[in-house]
Amino acid sequence: MKTPTDAARDYLAAVEREASALPADRRQELLADLAEHIEVTRAERPDAALGEILAGLGDPRTIAATALAEAGTGGAAFPSPGGADAPARRAKVHPLVPLLMLTLPYLVTTVLPDVPGLALCSGLIRIAGGVLLCTSVHWTTVRKIVGVLLAVVAPTVASLVWSETTVAPAGDTPALVANLVALAVVAGTSAWLWVCRRR
Fold first, then answer.
1. Where exactly are the structural domains of the chain?
2. Fewer beta carbons under 10 A from the terminal one: N or C of the chain?
């Protein structure tokens, strides 16, 4: 009888076989991501059957085909829609770009809180940074979710609650302290994402 560890090992071996056309480093990265996802999901949902978790990941052949398409090395079994010479579907953006787009708007709005229209521009830049973070190949899904929650959602919700519940002017000391705390959380999150990025 197969143990859960054997089933996970067999699943990862199947993905490795199907993704044999990937460069070795990218294939190992894919397997490490899948193994991490399995571990995290098992820790979060200890009552879930491993078969259910593996089914949620998808068929090994589909995972390998997606990884091959993203790497631009789609094999004959899975030709890319644009032909053999079509570029990879997901452009690689330098990991610093989304992190700067998440952090710099907070810095600017903290230094210049009373500039009209700056909050709107700042919000749009942060949303774009969150989208780039979510579509990036440099972080795992779990890290992307944590990054978006800490760098976009939490500070935005805190800012909305602050603006609706206080009457202090934007340049007042409590508002400045709140902005500095939000900036520290966002900057810390960006630094953490930079350290744990895939190289």
1. 4-71, 96-195
2. N
Beta carbons of 187 and 151 less than 8 angstroms apart: no
pTM of the model: 0.50
Cα distances (angstroms) measured from residue 12 to each of 77, 148, 174: 20, 28, 52
DSSP string, the chain: ---HHHHHHHHHHHHHHHTTTS-HHHHHHHHHHHHHHHHHHHHH-TTS-HHHHHHHH--HHHHHHHHHHHHT---TTS--TT-TTPPPSS----THHHHHHHHHHHHHHHH-TT-TTHHHHHHHHHHHHHHHHHH-SSS-HHHHHHHHIIIIIHHHHHHHHHHHH----TTSHHHHHHHHHHHHHHHHHHHHHHHT---
pLDDT digit string (tens) for 97-143? 888 888 888 788 777 767 778 878 888 888 888 888 888 888 888 98
Residue 66 CA to residue 60 CA, distance in Å, equals 10
Contacts of 158 (CB under 8 A, 6+ apart): 178, 182
